[in-house]
Amino acid sequence: MEPPEHARAAASGVAGDPLVGRLLDGRYRVGARVARGGMASVYEATDTRLDRTVAVKVMHPGLGDDQDFAERFVREARAAARLNHPHVVGVYDQGDDTSDGQDTVFLVMEYVPGHTLRDVIRKEAPMPPRRALALLEPVVSALAAAHRAGLIHRDVKPENVLIADEAHGGRVKVADFGLAKAISADTQHTATGGVLIGTVSYLAPELVVDGRADARADVYAAGVVLYELLTGNKPHEGESPIQVAYRHVHHDVPMPSLLEPGIPDYVDALVARATSRDRDQRPADATVLLHHLHRVEQAIREGLASDPELAADLLPRQAPVSDDDPADRREDTTPEPFDAGALALLTQVDPRDSGLVDDGSPDRTTALERHPVPRTPVPVGAAPRPSDQAPPTTAMPVRSVPTRRPSPGRAPSRVAPVTTTARRRSVKGPVSLLLAVLLVGGIALGAWWFGWERYTTTPAVLGLDEAAASAKLEAAGLEAEAGEPAYSENVAAGMVITTDPGPGGKVLDGGTVTLTLSLGPERYDVPQLKGQTEDQAQDALAATNLAFGKSTGRWSETVPEGQVIRTSPKAGTTLKPGATVDLVLSRGRKPITIKDWTGKSFDHALAALETRRLKVSVAGEEFSDTVPEGHVISQDPSTGTLFRGDTVSFVVSQGPELVEVPTVQAMGVEAATELLEGLGFKVKTEESDVYLGLGYVSSSDPGAGEQVPKGSTITLFLV
Fold this sequence. Notes:
Elements: E1 23-24, E2 28-36, E3 40-47, E4 52-59, H1 67-81, E5 91-97, E6 104-110, E7 114-116, H2 117-124, H3 129-148, E8 151-152, E9 161-164, E10 172-174, E11 181-182, E12 190-192, E13 195-198, H4 205-209, H5 215-231, H6 241-250, H7 265-274, H8 286-301, H9 308-314, H10 340-343, H11 351-354, E14 366-369, H12 428-453, E15 455-457, H13 466-475, E16 479-482, E17 496-500, E18 506-508, E19 512-517, E20 524-525, H14 534-543, E21 547-554, E22 564-568, E23 574-575, E24 580-586, E25 591-594, H15 602-611, E26 615-623, E27 632-636, E28 640-643, E29 647-655, E30 658-660, H16 669-678, E31 682-687, E32 697-701, E33 707-709, E34 713-718
Parallel strand pairs: 16-19, 21-24, 26-29, 31-34
Antiparallel strand pairs: 1-2, 2-3, 3-4, 4-6, 5-6, 7-9, 8-11, 9-10, 12-13, 13-14, 15-18, 17-19, 20-23, 22-24, 25-28, 27-29, 30-33, 32-34
Helix pairs in contact: 3-5, 3-8, 5-7, 7-8, 7-9
InterPro entries: Kinase-like_dom_sf, PASTA_dom, Prot_kinase_dom, Ser/Thr_kinase_AS
Enzyme class: transferase
Domain PASTA: 452-519, 520-587, 588-654, 655-719
C-alpha cells in the first residue's frame, strides 16, 4: 500500500535524494520529501505552470517497470479524480517522466499542510464523544460520496485522514485511494491473487475470511477509528498481524465505555453497529452510517447521558444460532489452532509483491497470504466437535467397514457403520431385522421432527401495520421483532415491507420473525443554506443525501461575496435522495463605473446617476466665463468604480458674473471709457445723430442700470 498522502513526517527531506530539485514532466519542481512508504514517497512540489504548491507521490525507482504497480498508480488517479468532494484529497495529474533514462511514475495531488488524524489521537485520545464524532463526520461524509460513486476506499485508517492547519481552514480530508475499487459482488480485497492487502487493525472480518469487500468493510474500519478516538486504544492488539486478524474474526469490538465509563450507551451502540462481525448487521454503506452518526450527535447536543431507545435501535440485532452449526455465529471464547490448513495468514511478503516495507507497526498497510477456508476451521487430525459427531446408537453386532484416509489438509470424514447380520442361528435373524426396522424408523422419525415438524411456516404479513402483523404471527405461535426500518416508494409508512424469514419460509416453533417496517418514501428537505460558504453548503447537502449540482454567481448588496444567496429548488422543498440542488452564490456588491460629466448638463448627470442608484450632491455653484450656466464645472470622483449608494459630488456653473452698467451720460469720452473698462467692460464709441464734435457722451448701449455679463462691450454715443 502506498503511504498516506502528505503524512506529516518529521523530516523535511533526505540529503542526497536525487528527486529533490528535479523538474518532472517539465512542470513540477520537486521539493522536500514529507512521507515515505514501501511503494512510493510523497514530496512537496511547485507546479511551475500554475504557480501553486502541490504534493507529488513518486513510485520508488524500479517499481515503475512493474506493470501491476503502475496500473495501481493509474487506478488511484482515476478513482480519486471521480470524487469531487470537499473532504477528499483531489488528484490533479498523473504522469510518467523518462527524462533521466528510467520511468518515474508519479501522481500530482492537492497539498494539505497540517497533520494526520493519527497525530490528533496521540495528543488528545481518549477524547469526549462530541469531539470524536466531529472528527469522524467529514471522514464518513467523504466515504459516503465514494460509495455513491460506486467506489470503496479499502484502507480507512487515521494515517489516511489529513487535517489542514488552522491557517488553511482546518479542513479534514480523506486521502490515499490507492486501493479503491469499484463495488461489485466479486470485489476482492487483494492486489494479486492470494495476497490480502490492508491494515490489519482496521480489516473487517469478512476480508480475512474470504477476501470479499464491499462498502460495509469501510463502515467497519470507520467504526474502529471511532473506537480509537474514544478510548485511545485499538480494539484488538497482538504481537503479530496474524494475531490481530484472528481477533477481528473471532472477537467483537468491545464497548468503548469499558475503558471510558462516561461514554453514553448510544455511542457504545453506534460503535457496536458499525463494527459488527456480521456484516449484514452493519449499515449498508457510509451514507447510512452518516445518518446514524447525526442521530447520535443530536443526542449529545441535547446533553443526554443515556438514551435506551436510541441505543436499542442502533445495537445490532442478535442473529439466530443454527442448531447444526452453533459455532458459526457465536463468539469464540477459547483459542483455536490458527493453522495453515485452515486460514494461513503469513508474515509480510516481498515488498515488490505488496508495496510494503515492514516496520513492525500494526498501522502499516499489511500484505497477508490467505487461503479460502471454512469460517470455523478444524485442524488436521483433531477430534471433531461434539456437534459434529454422529449420535450414539444401540450396540449391536456389526462389522466395521474400513474408512478412506482423509485427504491432506482436510478433517477426517465420518462414515456411518454398516450393519451386517452374521449367519448364525436362525433365531437371530428376526431380532436383527426388528432392530434394523426400529433404527430406520427412529432415524425417519428424527428426520421428520428435526427437518419438518418442529418448524412453522411463516405467515404472510406484508402490508400490515406492526400491531396487526405481530398479532398474526403470535396466532401462528411465533414472536415478532421490529428490525431496522427501511424506506419504500410504494408501501405506506408503518406497514411491513419484508420479513425474515419471508412469507412461506420455515422458522422454529416459537421462533422470531423480524419485521421490516416502511418509513414511507425516502425524501429529504432542501436545507436552509443562505449565508453559508460553498463548501459548507456542499457538506450540508451531502449530510441530507442530496447532491450538489452547480454554482451560479450573482451580484448582491446584502450577502457577502462567496456566500449562498439562495438554492434551486428553494429551501424546504422535499426531494428524493440523490436529487441535485444548485447554489446561487454572491459575487459581492455590483461595481458601477462612472464617467466624467464635466462641461455637460448637470440635470442630465443627475438623472443618469440616480437611475444607477448613486447619490448626487452639489458641492457648490460658481460663476464661469467658459462653462454655461447649469453645466458641470467639476466632479468628485471624476472616474472610477463605485457601489450602489455611494455619492458623486458636483460644482455647477452659474454662468458668467453680471455687472450693472453705470451712468456715463454727459461724461467726457475719456472718463467714461476709463470707468467702464475698470468694471471689466469693453468700450466702443460711435457718433450720435446730433454729433457736434464736443467729445461728450450722450447715451450708452446697454443703458445705465442694466445687468450684463462682465466683459461685455458697451457702446458710447458721442455729441
